[in-house]
Specification:
- The protein has about 270 residues and is α/β, with parallel strands linked by helices.
- The protein has a single domain, classed as Alpha-Beta Barrel (TIM Barrel), CATH 3.20.20.
- It is about 40% helix and about 15% strand.
- It contains 11 helices and 8 strands.
- Helix 2 crosses helix 4, helix 4 runs parallel beside helix 5 and helix 8 runs parallel beside helix 9.
- The longest helix is centred in the middle third of the chain and has 17 residues.
- The radius of gyration is 17 Å and the shape is globular.
- The structure holds 3-methyl-2-oxobutanoic acid.
Length: about 270
């Protein structure tokens, strides 16, 4: 079967077919997730919290991301239908265009097919430069965990009208600059639906309701392996005696069929 590419995801948006995204940090999990039909593997800097035990993603380095991207890329290549591998550029490795381009080069050469960066319209010059150089980009808006210290905690973003309107404009500006995907984290479901309608690139949501083109979860969370507070947007798929591959397939199917996320997983 043909590997998933950015064109596959664009076509899926045009045809209104939802796709699923899951974090992966190692080869075994990457292969299992791709074999379960998950379209995008996100080598998320959430690995700082769930793999390394840090209290935020801030301590994650570019070297960590390169290491985990290489492992995920090798596992993914063994799958029957390889997924698209998207890697986070970690905290303060893309503050200016030259630094961001060098960081993107490192993870792309380790096996990523796409990079993800957190921020709003200040990212436009970097996104444009990466697009010109052939690097697909996902722009992450809303709750951007690398800014947790600035936010003063993990809070829903875009709740008031002015901030919601600004987020719509930022999403449009990033898509116009060349971003291939927008990711929205912890934003009201109605705002996520509005952004999904107003941009012509796929929109992935997490804590963003059921109207986006795709959904992402952290793999440990959907396997019921989180040890602290369970966020509202998480669903445990490791139920009814399922094996891990069965739970992964259930997640992919529920996203595809619009069953997950349900109303209770979103924010009003
Ligand atoms: O790092 C990560 O896992 C992420 C997702 C939560 C979207 O950015």
């Amino acid at each position: 079967m043909t590997a998933i590419s950015i064109r596959t995801l664009q076509t899926m948006k045009q045809e209104q077919q939802r796709f699923s995204v899951l974090t992966a940090y190692d080869a075994t999990f990457a292969q299992l997730a791709a074999d379960a039909g998950i379209e995008v593997l996100l080598v998320g800097d959430s690995l700082g919290m769930v793999v390394q035990g840090q209290s935020s993603t801030v301590p994650v380095s570019l070297e960590h991301m390169v290491y985990h991207t290489a492992a995920v890329a090798l596992g993914n290549a063994r799958a029957a239908r390889p997924a698209l591998v998207m890697t986070d550029l970690p905290f303060m490795t893309y503050g200016d265009v030259a630094t961001g381009v060098a960081s993107a080069r490192a993870v792309m050469q380790a096996g990523a097919h796409m990079v993800k960066v957190e921020g709003d319209d200040w990212l436009v010059p970097l996104v444009a430069s990466l697009a010109q150089q052939g690097v697909p980009v996902c722009a992450h808006l809303g709750l951007t965990p690398q800014s947790v210290n600035k936010f003063g905690g993990y809070r829903v973003q875009g709740r008031d009208d002015a901030k919601a309107d600004a987020m719509v404009e930022h999403a449009k500006a990033l898509a116009n600059a060349g971003a291939d995907i927008i990711l929205l984290e912890c934003v009201p479901s109605a705002l996520a639906a509005r952004i999904t309608e107003h941009v012509n690139v796929p929109v992935i949501g997490i804590g963003a309701g059921g109207q986006t083109d795709a959904q992402v979860l952290v793999c440990y969370d959907m396997l019921g392996l989180n040890t602290g507070h369970t966020p509202k947007f998480v669903k445990n798929f490791m139920i009814d005696g399922r094996t891990v591959p069965e739970a992964l397939k259930a997640y992919a199917n529920e996203v595809r069929e619009g069953v997950f996320p349900a109303l209770e997983h979103g924010f009003a």
